[in-house]
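Z., the sequence and structure:
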Amino acid sequence: MNVRVRYAPSPTGHLHIGNARTALFNYLFAKKHNGTFIVRIEDTDIERNVETGIESQMNHLHWLGIQADESIEKDGGYGPYRQLERLNIYQHYAQVLLDAGLAYKCYCTSEELQAEREQMIADGKDKLHYSRKCLGRPEEDKPYTLRFKVPENTAYTFNDLVKKEVTFRSEDIGDWVILKQNKIPTYNFACAIDDYLMKITHVLRGEDHITNTPKQMMIFEAFQWDSPIYGHMTLIVNEQGKKLSKRDESILQFIDQYKSLGYLPEALFNFITLLGWSPQTEGEIFSHDELISLFDEKRLSTSPAKFDQEKLAYINNRYIKSLSLEETKTLCLPFLTEANIGSNQSDAWFESLIAVFKDRLVYGKQIVELYQDFFEQEFTIEPEAKTLLSEEGVKPLLEDFITRVNNTETLTAESYKTYIKESGKATQMKGKMLFMPIRIAVSGSMHGPDLPQMMHLMGKELVTNRIQTTLKTL
C-alpha cells in the first residue's frame, strides 16, 4: 500500500499544540512507511477564518521541521489543496447523491429548525434529530440546504488503530446537511470527498473527531468507495488530568508562543512526539531521524497524554546544552538586545554571559531573567547564607579579597580566579570556606554560576559595592 496521510487544519487561528501533534504523528507515520504527507487547508468556515491563518500554520509547521510532500506550496497532482478552491467538486458529488435519492433538499429556515428542536426537548425526546419533514417535499423556488439521507438500521464499524473496534448506529445520527444554502459544503462531506480524491489511506486525528467518522463512512459507502483506516489519538490533558482548554493559561498552547520565548524547534518536535506515544527503547531525547525510525503506530497510547511541563523544560534544556557557544549566542542575543542588556558591551562580554548561564537555560528568553536576578535585583543575603558568613576567618578573607580587587584597574575572570586563590593563601581559608563566602558576598546566594565569570560580568564597581555592603553586616 502506498501510504498517504493528511493534516487538514482550518485557518481559524495559530498552530495549537494539539494540532501540531496531529501533524507530527501523520508526518512520522508517512516517513516511517515511505509514504506521502499532505497538508490540506480546510477553509470552508469563512466566518472564523483569520487573514494570516494559513500562513501561520505553514510557517510554524516548517519551523518545527514538519515538511509536507504535497500542499498549497507543493502540488503533487491532487490539488487544489484549499477547500474553497474545490467548491465545484463538492457541488458535483452532492448533485450525484441528490440524483440518486441519497440526499434531499431541505427548505427549513434556521428559525423553524430551532422551534422543532425546542419542541423535541419539551416532549422529552432523547434523540434530537431532524424530523425529515422536507423528505419528498415538492420542489420550491426558495433557498435550501442538501441533507444526506441516513440509512436506517445500519451499523458503522471500523477497526481503529488506537481504540480497536468502534461501532456507531445510524439511528443515533439524524439526516445531516452536506451542502449549505451558500453551496459551501459542511466539514464531514468535504472531508470525505477530499480523502477519497486525494487517495488518503490512513486518517490519524484526535479522538474529539471520532463522532465525525460514521458520517464520513456514510459518504464512502454511498459512493461505494473504500474507507481509509482510522486512528483516533487520545486527548492531551493538563497536570490535573483535565482536557486542555484554550482558556487554561497555566500552559502555553500555541507553537508561536514557544517560538517567541526561544524554545528550540528540535526540542518541541521531540517533546510533542512523546505526547501520547512512547518508543520501545529507553530515554527521552531523540533526533528527528531517530523518531522517524522508532515510530510505531501500535505504540500510540490508549490513555490521555499528560502535558508535563517539567519534561518539556528538561528536554529543551538538554537541547540548549548541546548547542555551540555561537549557536547559543544567536538564540539569546535578540532577547538581551530587546531588554537593553549589554548595549555597550563587547562580543566577548556576551559570550561570557551566555557561557555562565547556558547550562541553566530552559528557553532563550530566560537569559534576561537570569541576568536580572543576578545583577539587577536588590542585593539581599539569603538567611542560610548569613549563618556561613558568621564563621571565623570570613571577614579577613573578604577584606583581603576586596583590597586586591580595588588595587587592580582592569579585571578579567582569570584575575578574579587568581585573587580568590591568593586571598585564600593569605588568610588560610580553603575549599568551601574560601569560595562560598565570596560568592555570598557578591550574589547573596550560596549557589550560582561560575564565580570568577560571574564577577567579571558584574563589573568591578558592583562587586566591590556588594562586598563592602556585606562587610558592614559582619
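The two ends are 79 Å apart (CA to CA). The mean pLDDT is 94.

Let me know what you think.
H.
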